[in-house]
Amino acid sequence: MTGRGSGVGPKRQRIGLPPAATLGVALAAMATPGHAADRPPEPKPLAEVIVSASRQNDAVITARVERALADDPYIYGEHITVSTSNGVVTCEGIVGDVFELFRVLRLCRKFSTGKRMINGLEINAVLPDGG
Amino acid sequence: MAKFKAIRLLVALLTALLVVGAWPSRSIAAADQTNEQIRALQQRLDELSKQIDELKKQQAAAAKAAPAAPAAPAAATGPVKPAKEAPPPEPAFEKFMKGFFGTLDASVDYTTKGMSDEEAFHWGYAPGVVPAPGLGPSAYVNNGLKVGPVGRVGWLGAMSTNGSNIGYRGTHKIGTSDVDFIYQVSTAFSVDAAPGLQNTWTKQSNTVLGAIGLGDTYIGFQKKGWGRLRFGEMYMPYKTATDRLNPFAGELGNYSVVMGNSGGDNRVEFGTRIDHVVSYSSPDLSGFSFDAAYGFGQQITYDNTTSPLGSADCSGANVGGSGNLLLNCDDGAWDDSYSVDFKYETGGLYLVGAYEMHKRVNRNSDGIGSNDPYYGYLAGLGSGNALSASILDWGTYCTLVGSQDPGNCPGAAAGTPGLGVAPGFFADGGSPPYLHDIADEWAAKIGIQYRFAFGLTVSAMWEEMHRNLPAILMWQNERQRTGDWLALSQELNGGADLVSIGWAHAGATVGDPGGQHNFDPTKAGNDQANMYTISWHHKLDKQLTWYLDAAETVNDGNVHYDIGAGGHGIKTDCHDGTHNIVIDYSSFGPTTWGGCHEIGVSTGVNFKF
Predict the structure, then answer these.
(1) Distance of CA B167 to CAs A79, A99, B214, Å?
(2) Residue B565 DSSP code
(3) Which of A40, B4, B242, B338 is at 20 to 30 A from A54, Cα to Cα?
(4) Smallest Cβ distance to B537: which of A90, A99, A106?
């Protein structure tokens, strides 16, 4: 029986309505001003662009801090979370002792392009009490 | 025909020989060919494997490198491509395992209590002196020598577990909200001894070393920009705010020996973990932040003599009866508590202020066995005296001694043994506890830390502790004093080595209950102490550190600070080896000696995971 093969062929040449609609929506969503030259020019969303670029900067900073933590020979960064907002680096999580704390703080500050960094680190000090 | 047969035979023979002779060579050749193919395949597989590894590395590097590409200028126009693709979902098991954290730390110590040559005397008032608190040395007379220190109080080797712990923490995003549910469970345990109740010859506690919950354990909520709200059992802000000022945490001579330690014993009142706490931590506010916590007292009695509802120990640690005292939480148990800190951090500068309050702290047991002549005078006045009856708890005393002291316990029926405790006012026998030695205790401190670019960190702290007693009891108030702390830490060899020195000073207290066996009233006010610490930490890698630490505490004659309180597993303190084989609530047991001079050296390894 060749119905399966013959049936597939013609269908491949035709795009059904739902996929076409989906594709259309997707293309519309992806369209840039350059692609819509026939439409009247819209004002440049400058503010939006700045925000997007800033986010990228933040991601770059975060990645650099994470890499620096991973590369540092004396920092165990498994429990440290790094995030960046407008250039201000936040380092959160657990460090083992004060020396590791100082080292992490120095790294986080080194890469922070904001005026400061935010310290959300805790020292793991679970000490049984005496009596 | 025969010739033909012979030829055929010869041909057959030659053929057979050829076959036989050729077969092995074909087999070898085939085998060689197969081996060659296998080798080729193996080589190909190796190449493919290398390529896969290389691709994996490239993929990982690309994921890292993508955001590391030069950032587009802020003013750039046009669409901005995503910085990187979403990372692949983290394997569930790896994510689960990442929640575990902890420390393994063990050391070998060599320490001395430094009190083998101590002497103790019976002191009384000189003839004609009207007893009163705070009299000069000439008001007292020495009535003879008492027993000296018992047991091994000189140099002793020991193995110690120091702050070893394991915990698990995580977050759970609540639905589609921005709020996370947070949780942590942890425990402290020993790496050199079997787990069990924290009982020694100096104290009894129901908390179990190695059981889940003997560590900061909580649940709570957090949201970026809102801060963090937690409910559970945890250290208070007063402690955590200055943890970073203590480079000797868990070691001999760490600052908790003096700072936050109002009585100079092994318990650190203002540095302890508290049950039933709700705690809020603010987000960072331009470098400022604060924490505030409230501990529910959960007391069913008015004088806090029972363990808080839901707790294994009295608030402030230990069970009622610890130290051969009455089955009451009257050796420093409190009701509600609250704690707050304010922090500011910018660059290498860290400023901190903190305050903590313990409400209605019951210290009635401080009277039992007191060696202060004024206490002896009050007890000697008897239960019928108004002054004595207003300060001492004769009712409890009579429960202890029954009809053995008919003068003070006229209500006791003849032959009533009470609890079998012999009457006696100067230790080793029953004596009245205080009646109303219950008062609020608070502590406040300020600290500063500066980290220089060349690796030096300077930490300093000043503290004041108060016990709000009425004037009539102030003469025995040993909980009110100041404290000072200074520490310097220098990184060397790129951070591989860290050398630290520290000095702590305990200021004079306003009074003294005279609990130490060798209490000397002629040296009233002679109760300051200095502690000196030096350490060397060598980082072997990211997780493993070797350390060498030494400490010395120099106590004045009437005080007894140690060198291990606040985290070091084995405390070298001022208790001698006296131990009681019966429980009679007389406080007879481990004897404390003022003026002890502890020295210790400790070396160990610390592993973090």
Answers:
(1) 12, 21, 10
(2) T
(3) A40
(4) A99
List the single residue in B with minimal CA-CA distance to A55.
B83
Distance from CA of A5 to the nearest CA of B (A): 36
Burial of B453 (0-12, 13-18, 19+ CB in 10 A): exposed
Establish if B346 touches chain A: CB-CB under 8 angstroms: yes
pLDDT along chain B (609 residues), means of 10: 50 44 43 59 64 67 50 44 62 88 96 95 95 93 94 96 94 96 94 88 86 91 96 96 96 96 90 95 95 97 94 90 89 96 96 98 93 93 96 93 91 85 76 95 98 96 97 94 98 96 97 92 90 98 97 96 91 91 84 95 97
Q: Which domains does chain A have, with CATH numbers?
A: 45-123 (3.30.1340)
Distance from CA of A89 to the nearest CA of B (A): 12
Task: Check CB contact under 8 Å for A79 and B84.
Answer: no
Q: Give contacts of A101 with chain B, Cβ < 8 Å.
A: 244
Residue B471, Ramachandran bin (φ over 0: left; ψ between -120 and 50: alpha; else beta): alpha
CB contact under 8 A, A74 and B205: no
Q: Which element (helix H / strand E) includes B504?
A: strand B497-506
**CB distance from A86 to chain B under 8 Å?**
no
Residue B519 tokens read as: 């209490």
Buried b / exposed e over B291-323, threshold 16 CB at 10 Å, is bbbbbbbbbeeebbbbbbeebbbbbbbbbbbbb
Residue B472 CA from chain centroid, whole number: 35
3-state SS of B192-210 is CCCCEECCCCCCCCCCEEC
Distance from chain centroid for Cα B30? 73
- List of residues 6+ apart from B482 with CB closer than 8 A: B462, B463, B464, B465, B507
Interface check for A92 against chain B (CB to CB < 8 A): the answer is no
Domains of chain B, earliest start first: 100-363+437-608 (2.40.160.10)
What is the tens place of the pLDDT at every residue in A53-108? 555 589 999 999 999 999 999 999 999 999 999 999 999 999 999 999 999 999 99
d(CA B240, CA B219): 18
Gyration radius from chain A CA atoms: 26
The DSSP 8-state label assigned to residue B88 in this structure reads P
Phi, psi of A25 (to 5 degrees): -65, -40
Residue indicated by tokens 């425990």 = B187
- Three-state SS letters, A77-88: HHHEEEEEECCE
Residue B440, Cα to own-chain centre: how many angstroms? Answer: 24
Q: Say if B149 is an interface residue toward chain A (CB within 8 Å).
A: no
Contacts of residue A70, defined as CB under 8 A and 6 or more positions apart, other chains included, come to A77
What sign has the CA pseudo-torsion B277, B278, B281, B282? negative
Window 16-75 of A, Cβ < 8 Å to B: 32, 44, 46, 49-50, 52-57, 59-60, 62-64, 67, 72-75
Interface of A with B in 102-131 (CB under 8 A): 102-103, 105-106, 109, 116, 118-120, 122-131
B84 touches chain A (CB under 8 A): yes
List of chain B residues whose C-beta atoms are within 8 Å of the C-beta of residue A114: none
The SS3 assignment for B233 reads strand
